[in-house]
Amino acid sequence: MTDAQQIHPLTSLRFFAAFWVVLFHYWPALATATTPLFVAKGYLGVELFFILSGFILCHVYRSEVETGRFAYGNFLWARLARIYPLHLATLIGMGVLAAAAGAAGFAVDPNILSWESLPANLLLVQAWGLAPVAGWNHPSWSISAEWFAYLTFPLFAWAALALKSRPLVAVTLAAVFMALLYAGFEALAGHPLTLATIRWGALRIVPCFALGCALHSLWRERAGGGRRSALTGAAISGAAALFAAAAGLSDTLIVLSTAALIFYLARLAQAGSQVLCAPILIYLGEISYSIYMVCVPWKIVFANGAASLLKLEGGQLPLGLWLVLLIGVVPLAALSYHLIEKPARGRMKLWAELWNGRAPKVAGA
Q1: Which helix (H) or strand (E) holds 296?
Q2: Model pLDDT, residue 362
Q3: What would the pLDDT profile of 69-85 be if each residue is shown by its tens digit?
Q4: Is 30 helix (H, G, I), strand (E, B) or coil?
Q5: For residue 155, what are the CA distances in angstroms to 57, 75, 92, 151, 182?
Q6: Is residue 3's pLDDT more than 50?
Q7: In the structure, what pLDDT confidence band is assigned to residue 358 with cuts at 50, 70 and 90?
Q8: What is the pLDDT of residues 191-238, one digit of tens each?
Q9: How remote is the C-alpha of 100 from its chain's centroid?
Q10: DSSP codes joined into one string, 139-203
């Protein structure tokens, strides 16, 4: 995304979504008897990512689809460059960690080295019901769901374009579709769709991605309102999302509240506001994918290592060590971003330029 296309508050929001998921994964390692409801709802940070994905991809590519300039192959390669190198690195890392732990005599969850699940993980289809178990780096199931959305993105874009003159209708239809799908899935499956991973992860992204595309249409076609109304909308929707999560209210209500927050933060950027535009927040948003992908491997290494060395009862960490675990994921993610994610993405984009017969871009040109 070019600087002209950047919506910085949404980049910053990615960090808060990732950190919400991290809290969800890390809280069980803390030596405490209770889990706040807000933390217990942290799995919905993934829904926030999914809605953001639909919004941002429409922001970057919808005009190309509309004018017939959309190059599907180039789009898929660019998306693969964004997600696959770090996915592959963490998958290999988890395999090495599990093999080393087993060789050292530590008990290892056999699912981590599930060879039957490896092909699906390598092909990014493990969240399509094609992996027998949740093996390797489990958070990558959502990357598989994203890959499904990327493959079907033209369908979402065309649906958004079909209703571009009636964006409120598009948003309403997407919200109703989400509510009905959530209710119907839970009635049939016996558990919420928002808790699905490898069996129904590809379906889980669909209502969120569609809502993100519809919200982008509303944001694009109905500009206006000014900073004050956008700030008020962001404050109300953000407070509603926090309250609904802290009170343990329905997932549908929480997800729709976060969707409204995305819309109003984008509206704030449109109005020239600098809310959530601090460089540190933007940087943390840029490394949010790395935070998400390394959080579970880091937890396994740190929590199990500390429990073994310090003989901790039940394997749970005292507050001080738990804070080291929590805060430590950020510099570790920064390392993976600068050493793996960013250079590999650049290399894959360079390959694409060479394959397309274009001279590679020179820094400073």
Answers
A1: helix 288-310
A2: 39
A3: 999 999 999 999 999 99
A4: strand
A5: 13, 14, 33, 9, 21
A6: no
A7: low
A8: 999 999 999 999 999 999 999 999 999 999 877 678 999 999 999 999
A9: 29
A10: GGHHHHHHHHHHHTHHHHHHHHHHTTT-HHHHHHHHHHHHHHHHHHHHHHHSS-GGG--TTTHHH
Q: Give me the residue spans of the domains in the chain.
A: 8-353
Q: Which is more confident, 224 or 14?
A: 14
CA 209 to chain CA mean position, Å: 11
Question: How many percent of the chain have pLDDT more than 70?
Answer: 96
Name 322's Cβ contacts closer than 8 Å, sequence gap at least 6: 26, 29, 30, 31
Angle CA 56–62–63, to nearest 5: 125
Type of residue at 242: L
What is the rounded distance in angstroms from the CA atom of residue 2 to the CA atom of residue 352? Answer: 17
Can you read off the two tokens belonging to residue 1?
A: 């995304």
What amino acid occupies position 252? T
At 315 the pLDDT is 75
8 A C-beta contact, residue 291 and residue 333: yes
The answer to whether 160 and 170 have CB atoms below 8 angstroms apart is yes
